[in-house]
Amino acid sequence: MPLTGRCLCGAVSYTSDAEPQSVIYCHCDDCRRVTGSAFNVGVGIPASTFQLSGKTKGYESTNDEGRTKIREFCPECGSQLFTRYPNTIFIKAGTLDHSEDLRPTREIWTEMAVPWSKIPDGLDKFPRSSTWGSSQPGIHCDYSLTWYHGSQQELTKLRIGSSITQSRSVAKAFSHRPSIVSMSDEGESLSDKLRIKHNGVTPGYLYVVSNDIGPDDVYPHPHPANADRWEWLTNRELKLKLIEQTIATDEERLTDEEIAEIRQKQKERGEESFVG
Ligand SMILES: [Zn+2]
Ligand SMILES: [Zn+2]
After folding, report:
1. What is the mean pLDDT of residues 136-164?
2. 74 CA distance to ligand 1 centroid (A)?
3. Domain spanning 3-114 has what CATH number?
4. What's the pLDDT score for residue 272?
5. Which residues are registered as beta bridge partners of 157?
6. Residue 212: beta bridge partners?
7. Which of 39, 53, 219, 249 is the most buried (most CB within 10 A)?
8. Which residues neighbour 48 within 8 Å (Cβ) at sequence distance 6 or greater?
């Protein structure tokens, strides 16, 4: 399976038909600085298999052990893409199109690792941005009703920690990848009288969950997307069935004024949006 990847803006892309020789977490100071994160994950491949398209800029530096390398990045968007050694290229794993199958092989420069390079247990977890709405615990539901999931991706399985809902219109809204969702809070039931608006524009996919769902399988989203009591998170992998390819209509789209109003309210609550 060939490796492919690109920078954030897409001006630079690359391919290689090699299998990764190594997948390495690097905790060195230079990697931390250049990625702007806790560590770098480098995917080593033979330089001879690497094909680049688009123009990069390179920065050459020498580390404490005297090894010189060139880190190359997109001059348009600044994405760090790979590091060039004479015979080997280390691709920055986050720029790969499909990094989910990587098998990390080792950690290096651990003496420089920061304590927060491991994500501690017990942090609040959000399948999407954490800035969507407020917490509303203590929700009950009829588990036997249909469960829906909206996504940008074509899926057959849903990973643990994904959000599902018993409202078809909520799932549909999420399928358009909105950063803001608003709901009129009139109805008490799951009827689709629920008025939902959002700022998503991209087409998506609407799924139903094929498995039976019980109380052990889901829990209410601690910080739902302004969609209190409609969003639940999954505790196990679930099977999905596609029921609709979704298109965002004008009626469901938030106007610029409505978006400004919601953002203002978020600001007042100290919830600066992390999305878009
Ligand atoms: Zn770019
Ligand atoms: Zn490093």
Report:
1. 83
2. 5
3. 2.170.150.70
4. 58
5. 239
6. none
7. 39
8. 87
User: What is the distance, to the nearest Å, from the Cα of residue 105 to the centroid of all Cα atoms in its chain?
Assistant: 23
User: What is the rounded distance in angstroms from the CA atom of residue 232 to the CA atom of residue 170?
Assistant: 11
CA of 28 from ligand 2 middle (Å) equals: 4
Distance 128 CA to ligand 1 centre (A): 24
DSSP 96: B
CA-closest candidate to residue 245, choices 203, 196, 214: 203
Domain ranges of the chain: 3-114, 148-256
State residue 271's pLDDT score.
63
Distance 18 CA to ligand 2 centre (A): 22
Q: Which H or E element spans position 59?
A: strand 57-62
Q: Residue 41 Cα, ligand 2 centroid: separation in angstroms?
A: 9
- Show Cβ contacts of residue 242 under 8 Å, excluding neighbours closer than 6 positions: 154, 205, 206, 207
Looking at residue 273, what is its pLDDT? 52
Sequence-distant (6+) residues with CB within 8 A of 108 are 24, 25, 26, 27, 28
Q: Quick one: tokens of 141?
A: 């539901």
CA dihedral 114, 122, 276, 164 (to 10 degrees): 150
